[in-house]
Amino acid sequence: MEKFIVKGEVQLCGNVRISGAKNATLPIMAATLLCSGISVIHDVPYLRDIQAMQDILILLGAKIRRQGHTMLIDTSNVSKVEIPEHLMREMRASVFLMGPLLGRFRKVRLSYPGGCAIGPRPINLHIKALEKIGAIVDESFGFIDAEAKELTGGEINFDFPSVGATENAMMAAALAKGTTIIRNAAREPEIADLQAILNKMGARINGAGTDTIRVDGVARLVPAEHTVMFDRIEAGTFLTAGVMTRGDIVVENVVPEYLFSITDKLQDIGAKIITGKDYIRIKAGELRGVDIKTLPYPGFPTDLQAPMLSLVTIAKGTSIITETIFENRFKHVDELTRMGAKIKVEGRTAIIRGVEKLTGAIVAAPDLRAGSALVLAALAAEGTSEIEQVYHIERGYENIDKKMQALGANIVKL
Ligand code: UD1
């Protein structure tokens, strides 16, 4: 098993180009199933989750070729509509295949994605949305069978703005006979990116990025070419790393507007920020504690809660971090405590008393984002750290070790 060895207390300096977004690429790869032919997707990151989605598409009958960061997906021979249980278990995002398979073949069979490291992850909102547009869903013996003689369009009102359920609903509704209105839709920029490629494929969707999305169903979609948007979470992680190591870094290939909730908090913590059209430069100042509550976009993203918690462990004073999206998302706390952090967790709230510095330790990445929090802590800590279970981190950060090295970090993978 691979691990990172990190010698801390090096200030990160320089420029880093942010990769294409994992959370945009996954639904976009699924969306290519809505038509027959070769779609071309640019800026696809090399990540374990992307590889897992690629394996599923191939199993369904797609042919995939990668040329650097460009992925060509040929869906001409896709005929299977059943996703094997072991692949569902490997990656929850395989639930994204429900909407496209139902849209194109009017039929899909998958098993429950089940719980995952960050807490139970139900798919009731996905199912409810598909039922609203005409699917008949049968849930028995751990399997979900969805069928639709005809997808009719309909009114979907989400109780909670689920990102995945919004995307699934958009994809299935794109090939429905009528019009679908999705209310209380998630507003994440990745949803607007999905709308962009779907419309290039011939769909008629508008409103993505707001809380109401209108989908006028069309009879047929065609392949398209698209460049995936940048990864907001990777960008936020690097910005946080810059502040935590008291460095001076520039993240490139970003849309600063999409990062406001993060840059705002980093400024509150004491960072100095200069924003350009497609870059953000960040410099550390005196760090002070802040309060953060995770929320759906445009609120503070749950995926950056762990890196930010890591940062405030060395900010002066007390910080309070409340996690409202997932139940079990404080797994980094025990590991950070080993490194000298002072944190108390009460239910969904963590209370952090800032310390002067962290010290290196042997820790293990409990999940993807908790893992990146440990990388940041190790980069700032005095002495050497070992981070085990690096494979979690590589689910969602492309070459994090090499990118950190380019900024001056002393990190190697063994
Ligand atoms: C997506 C992101 C993930 C991010 C999350 C929240 C992808 C591939 N993943 O995940 O990185 O952390 O958004 O920003 O884009 N819920 C239900 N029923 C459902 C669906 C969701 O109760 O049917 C609940 C979940 O348990 C969770 C909350 O809604 O508490 C948010 O989930 P959701 O927005 O669906 O996240 P994902 O799409 O899974």
TrEMBL record:
Listed HAMAP family: MurA
Active-site residues from the entry: C116 (proton donor)
Matching Pfam families: EPSP_synthase
The name this protein goes by in its record: UDP-N-acetylglucosamine 1-carboxyvinyltransferase
Function: Cell wall formation. Adds enolpyruvyl to UDP-N-acetylglucosamine.
Residue numbers bearing the 2-(S-cysteinyl)pyruvic acid O-phosphothioketal modification: C116
InterPro entries for the chain: Enolpyruvate_Tfrase_dom, Enolpyruvate_Tfrase_sf, MurA_subfamily, RNA3'P_cycl/enolpyr_Trfase_a/b, UDP_GlcNAc_COvinyl_MurA
Recorded catalytic activity of this chain's protein: phosphoenolpyruvate + UDP-N-acetyl-alpha-D-glucosamine = UDP-N-acetyl-3-O-(1-carboxyvinyl)-alpha-D-glucosamine + phosphate
Keyword field contains Ion transport: no
Metabolic or biological pathway, per its Swiss-Prot or TrEMBL entry: Cell wall biogenesis; peptidoglycan biosynthesis
MF GO annotations: UDP-N-acetylglucosamine 1-carboxyvinyltransferase activity
Binding site for UDP-N-acetyl-alpha-D-glucosamine: R92, D303, I325
NCBIfam families attached to this UniProt entry: murA, PRK09369.1
Species in which this protein is naturally found: Sporomusa silvacetica DSM 10669
Main location: cytoplasm
